[in-house]
Design brief:
Chain A: This is Peptide ABC transporter permease. Chain A: Belongs to the binding-protein-dependent transport system permease family. Chain A: Keywords: Cell membrane, Membrane, Transmembrane, Transmembrane helix, Transport. The complex is a heterotrimer of chains A (334), B (334) and C (284). Chain A has 13 helices and no strands. Chain A has 334 residues and is an all-alpha fold. Chain A has a domain at 96-286: MetI-like fold (Orthogonal Bundle). Chain A is globular, with a radius of gyration of 24 Å. Chain B has 334 residues and is an alpha/beta fold. Chain B has a domain at 4-106 and 187-242: Rossmann fold. In chain B, 35% of the residues lie in helices and 25% in strands. In chain B, strands 6-7-8-3-9-10-12-11 form an 8-stranded mixed beta sheet, with helices on both faces. In chain B, strands 2-1-4-5 form a 4-stranded antiparallel beta sheet, covered by helices on one side. In chain B, strand 7, helix 9 and strand 8 (220-225) form a beta-alpha-beta unit. Chain B is globular and about 70 Å long. The two termini of chain B are 37 Å apart. The model of chain B has no long low-confidence stretch (mean pLDDT 87). Chain C is built from 12 helices and no strands. Chain C has helices spanning 2-10, 12-29, 31-34, 68-103, 107-120, 124-135, 139-166, 169-176, 181-217, 229-236, 244-272, 274-279. The radius of gyration of chain C is 22 Å and the shape is elongated. Residues 276-284 of chain C have low confidence and may be disordered. Classes of the chains: A mainly alpha (334), B alpha/beta (334), C mainly alpha (284). Chains in contact: A-B, A-C, B-C. The interface between A and C is large, with 55 and 47 residues.
Chain lengths: 334, 334, 284
């Protein structure tokens, strides 16, 4: 019952947020430009095409009518056609979604696996050389431009040493499409060759994206642990002689992780943003590469469609994280 | 077997602070006999909590330093024991703890049952007998827990175990804390201002429960409080502390009948009564970074002489079991 | 204030950050004098394309034969201009909104905060891409895109701090004494929440520089031949296996500058954040 109330509550906030996102994108695409039709038509369009598009998109109508029609068309799954591929933008985006999801999800898992233990150790050895070292390393990790780091890794490991592939998801064709996640599909098909190949292709993009994400997790876990370690319940548990191991790895860690979980939404945002440039560098056939190609070819519908899709994903992830947080934190009653 | 359970001799503890080294405990002597309830009375900042934590061996390692002194608990020298044996042998087994603030002493993200189960897993008195199998012991402990929850007059013991700390009231939490302190059958319970955070109406009930259970089981209690009225209700003997030193120690009746230290006298006078109204003590609590030499109370004492300004008073016996540290104790002031 | 400076001086990492920021500012101001080939921002020397670092071109040359070291120095000017202006605009929008919304509790404030929540509900870079793409590549448009996406951070922060500050006795006293709301906000609340704003702004500088460089890398920054660092790295990609210096040094410059702001921000937070200060006070 409590969970149900929580879910309904969060969903009630989800709809206006989504509308707000659409309003922002609408504002950017329909209100800011002097002539939106010219944008949609692209650089080489004739005046006749532009006029035809203006009429077709109803750009001569009042703004609120335009906004209403815009929302209806988005709900209908219509984001216009891409000039670059000539296909509906929605189709293009959806076909590239699994690649980006696979990359970001693997990165989140790697970042948690590395970041949480490091954060715990840094908190336990507060002010040791290890803690200070981790502080500098995590700050540095958050200061690196991912596109630059990606290029350096590619230069060293792919071009100079030849240890990893230059880019892409696999050599040649991917596995038969089941889920669109190559790792899972390869596992289902028991195709170890493709699995290994896909993993090799994944190493550099995952490392690049994991650097800022791991740094964030380390910092939040450390702060959460320190906060919990200074709490009254740790004092009480210590005074009553609960074993130190139990206090730290059960009682303190659970409290610290609840804080970290709320940050996964933030981390997902960092990853989606990073994916734009990192995918482009590693030629990863996901949303990011699509967005970069669209920007370079001034493919207006595609860029706006990308914004809506990524914004929506981000909002959905935060919704899920919120609900998850409400479920694992017993204090949450809203 | 002597009647003395714990003896503190010449304990000096200092804390590092921004302003300098604060001498929080300066040569404290204290004795608690088996089964007696000792009240440790003083204003906030007088060192009560530090003394309580020193006995438990849970002073913050980086900030506090034990300069001198001895704490004997039965055959153990607490200050000589390492952290591991303190945690496994003494804390939670021989010496239990009731915290000041029951609102924050429970871990917020685990059920009360989990926290009690973990306590029993490591501190159950049945562990000492060692003839029961793990399963038998768990079952027996479960019954003992429920029995104890009934003894502290908690309604619906089974239900409480399934609840999270924030779901029960402050008074009930403090009853739980008393139950948890007594479950391991300790010889000494350190209760650090256990009723300060509670409503006045609840305070009396908690005191009654604590006093009755301690008496029934012959458990000694070190009860710190800044409230003389509370001390009168529950204690057998009272020790008054002032600015990090104990100044007077007496059986409760004698204490209220014949206070011999000028500070004690003023403390008693400051109790609001129908004749006097409210009277404060003039002057200020001394700064512990740079305390006054000699008797620490002399700047606020009308009876102070040159001797008081230079030499710390030794302990005088003014009556049987009634000791006072003053060069000029009050004679039969009642 | 002196206590803050003294504590900051003890934090070697923060001090190092301050030095890095100082170097950036010096590089930007003294670019004409420090650079070895000041004309190379616009001049080409196709004969010397892609020369490796050496005595003549300390950090090598790019595809046009221009000196990378000199272009980096002029690039520092662009970075500072973009980051400082964008952040100043974002602060100028966000702080008053947060202050007013936090002070007056009502439907209006609720609405303002919901709007900033929606902005925060989309990754900054994605919104910035959409805006910059619409407006076209130029310095002004990058600044616009960044301030339009970053202002909610300050609005949210100031809103939360103002709300908790409003219940502080000194603010209640000022209100009870009949100070005008404007006076209470500017003279009483703003000074007491300024440390949080400073910390947030310092860290925000790093993030903004990174986002600006990303926009540049994507071709949404100031157009060529502007020596913008992110764009330079994008240009360098096609010459990669050989001309490593072309991509490496601009990225290093971005890294060091962002690192500078992050280190300083981290140090400032340790010094200014009252919650951390409380941890240093020991039990008596």
């Amino acid at each position: 019952m409590k969970t149900f109330v929580l879910v309904v509550n969060r969903l009630a906030w989800f709809v206006p947020t989504l509308l707000g996102l659409l309003a922002i994108v609408f504002f950017i695409s329909h209100v800011i430009p002097a002539d939106p039709a010219a944008f949609v038509a692209g650089e080489n369009a004739t005046p006749e095409t532009v006029a035809a598009i203006r009429a077709r998109l109803g750009l001569d109508q009042p703004l609120y009518v335009q906004f209403w029609r815009y929302i209806l068309s988005i709900l209908d799954g219509d984001m216009g056609r891409s000039i670059y591929t000539g296909r509906p933008v929605v189709e293009d985006l959806l076909s590239r979604l699994p690649a980006t999801l696979e990359l970001t999800l693997v990165t989140v898992l790697v970042s948690i696996a590395v970041g949480v233990p490091l954060g715990v150790v840094a908190a336990l050895r507060r002010n040791s050389w290890l803690d200070h070292g981790l502080r500098v390393v995590t700050i540095a990790g958050l200061a690196i431009a991912s596109f630059w780091f990606a290029i350096l890794l590619q230069l060293l490991f792919s071009m100079r040493l030849g240890w990893t592939p230059l880019g892409g998801r696999v050599e040649g064709w991917g596995p038969e499409q089941i889920t669109g996640f190559y790792l899972i599909d390869a596992l289902i098909l028991q195709d170890h060759e493709i699995l290994l190949d896909a993993l090799q292709h994944m190493i550099l993009p995952v490392v690049t994206l994991a650097v800022p994400a791991t740094a964030t997790i380390v910092r939040f876990t450390r702060a959460g642990m320190l906060n919990a370690l200074q709490s009254n319940y740790v004092l009480y548990e210590t005074a009553m002689g609960y074993p130190r191991r139990l206090v730290i790895w059960k009682y303190v860690l659970r409290n610290a992780l609840i804080g970290t979980v709320t940050q996964i939404g933030l981390i997902f945002g960092i990853l989606l943003a990073g994916a734009v440039v990192v995918e482009a560098v590693f030629d990863w056939p996901g949303l990011g590469t699509f967005a970069v190609n669209s920007i370079l070819s001034s493919d207006y519908n595609a860029v706006m469609g990308f914004t809506v899709i990524v914004g929506t994903m981000f909002i959905v992830v935060n919704l899920v994280v919120d609900i998850l947080h409400g479920m694992i934190d017993p204090r949450e009653v809203r | 077997m002597t009647s003395d359970l714990i003896t503190v001799r010449g304990l000096k503890v200092s804390f590092a602070s921004d302003a300098g080294i604060a001498r929080v405990l300066d040569g404290v002597d204290l004795t608690i006999r088996r089964g007696e309830i000792m009240g440790l009375v003083g204003e906030s900042g007088c060192g009560k909590t530090t003394l309580a934590r020193a006995i438990l061996g849970i002073l913050p390692a980086n900030a506090a330093r034990i300069e001198a002194g001895q704490i004997r608990f039965e055959e153990h020298d607490i200050l000589d024991l390492d952290e591991a044996s303190l945690a496994t042998q003494l804390r939670g087994r021989q010496i239990a703890y009731i915290p000041q603030d029951p609102f924050t002493a429970f871990n917020p993200v685990f059920t009360i049952g989990t926290q009690i189960d973990d306590l029993m897993r490591f501190k159950s008195p049945l562990l000492r007998e060692g003839r029961l199998s793990a399963r038998e012991r768990r079952r027996a402990d479960r019954l003992r827990v429920l029995e104890m929850l009934r003894l502290v007059q908690l309604p619906d013991p089974e239900g409480v175990l399934r609840k999270y700390p924030h779901e029960v009231s402050g008074g009930q939490r403090q009853r739980l804390m008393i139950a948890m302190a007594l479950l391991p059958q300790p010889k000494l319970v350190i209760a650090d201002e256990p009723t300060t955070a509670l409503d006045v109406t609840v305070q009396a009930q908690i005191l009654t429960v604590l006093k009755r259970l301690a008496r029934d089981r012959g458990v000694a209690v070190l009860f710190t409080t800044h409230d003389l009225g509370t001390a009168y209700e529950i204690c057998d003997r009272i020790t008054v502390m002032y600015a990090g030193q104990e100044v007077e120690e007496a059986p409760v009746a004698d204490f209220f009948a014949r206070p011999s230290h000028p500070y004690t006298r003023k403390l008693l006078d400051s109790l609001p009564s129908s004749e006097n109204g409210i009277r404060g003590i003039t002057g200020e609590i001394p700064r512990l970074v740079d305390p006054p030499p000699g008797c620490r109370f002399h700047p606020r004492c009308e009876r102070a002489t040159e001797e008081c300004r230079t030499t710390r008073p030794p302990t005088h016996a003014v009556a049987v079991a009634h000791d006072v540290r003053c060069h000029h104790p009050l004679q039969d002031s009642a | 204030m002196r206590r803050i400076l003294r504590k900051l001086a003890e934090d070697r990492a923060a001090l190092f950050g301050l030095v890095l920021i100082g170097l950036l500012v010096l590089a930007a101001i003294l670019a004409p004098w420090l650079s070895t080939h000041p004309g190379d921002v616009t001049e080409f020397h196709t004969a010397q394309r892609l020369t490796a670092p050496g005595a003549e071109n300390w950090l090598g040359t790019d595809r046009m034969g221009s000196d990378i070291y000199s272009r980096l120095l002029y690039g520092a000017r662009i970075t500072i201009t973009i980051a400082v202006t964008a952040i100043a605009v974002a602060v100028a929008i966000g702080v008053p909104i947060g202050l007013v919304a936090g002070y007056y509790q009502g439907i209006g404030s609720e609405l303002l905060m919901r709007v900033s929540d929606i902005f925060l509900a989309v990754p900054q870079i994605v919104l910035a891409i959409a805006i910059a793409q619409t407006l076209g590549p130029s310095i002004e448009n990058v600044i616009l895109a960044l301030s339009a996406t970053y202002w909610p951070f300050w609005a949210r922060l100031v809103y939360a701090e103002t709300r908790s500050c409003k219940n502080e006795p000194f603010v209640e006293a000022a209100i009870a004494l009949g100070c005008s709301p404007w006076r209470v906000m500017v003279l009483h609340i703003l000074p007491s929440i300024s440390s949080s704003i400073i910390v947030r702004t310092t860290i925000g500088m790093g993030g903004t520089i990174l986002t600006a460089a990303t926009l540049g890398f994507l071709g949404l920054g100031p157009p060529p031949p502007t020596p913008e660092w992110g764009r330079t790295i994008a240009e360098a990609r096609e010459f990669l296996p050989m001309a490593w210096w072309y991509a490496a040094f601009p990225g290093l410059a971005i890294f060091l500058v962002v690192m500078g702001f992050n280190l300083l921000g981290d140090g400032l937070r340790d010094v200014l954040d009252p919650r951390l200060r409380r941890a240093a006070r020991h039990d008596k």
